[in-house]
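Write out the 3D structure for:
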Amino acid sequence: MNLAKLPLEECKKKWSEWIAGRDPQPDLRALSNTERNIRNKTEEFFRSNADLWVGKVKESELDSSFALELYYEILPLNGSASVFNLRLASNIDIWRRLSMIVIPDFIAIRRKVDREASLLKREDGKSYFYDDRLKNHIRGLWWYCHFAHQGDREQTSSLFSSYNNHTDPIQGLVQRPGPGGYRVELNRELLKRLGASAKKRYDVPTFKKLLVLNTAKLMLVEPELCLGGVSGYVDTLVEKINNSSK
């Protein structure tokens, strides 16, 4: 797949231009055919989902909906080198270019990054575009959906709906890679427990406790070597949290 990269220094230059007076806008002349296709699909998604875009629903629902579109339609995962794959998804310079050159205007509106409100000068503003690998907006949505993947788009969407499209799991999973980086199977098991909240009264605050405990345990324990494997490992975390709340 023809996806170019944008080094950190180029991002800083572009950000300075925005602060100097240019709103975050795509550089259409610099787009490859692949990037134009990504932008066109993004535009079509938001045109077709006007209620999401104009603020008639919660931002969390917008994030979940766009995450599904990004993962299953715009940048669908495939093992072939000629299409999007995990190697490309792991390259932050690719996400930086998509954020700064291809669809910066959509990210700016979602994150309310505008000159009038002086948010371009806020330190956390640039983190959504390039400055913080773990907070890059579209990278976070793509990986979140990868962790939540339940076989197809419909089932993954149902999982999101089961915990009301809450965005805390995005921050918890994507911004907390843990020792050794991301563990996809483990993260999917953790999200399944959150998705069962309607039956087991497993809420988002408890999920946060689960993530904190998981980060600490991973320093000492290998989940796949536990009794029952990854699922058994998560069971032990849940049991410890339940016992501590009694």
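The longest helix spans residues 33-48.
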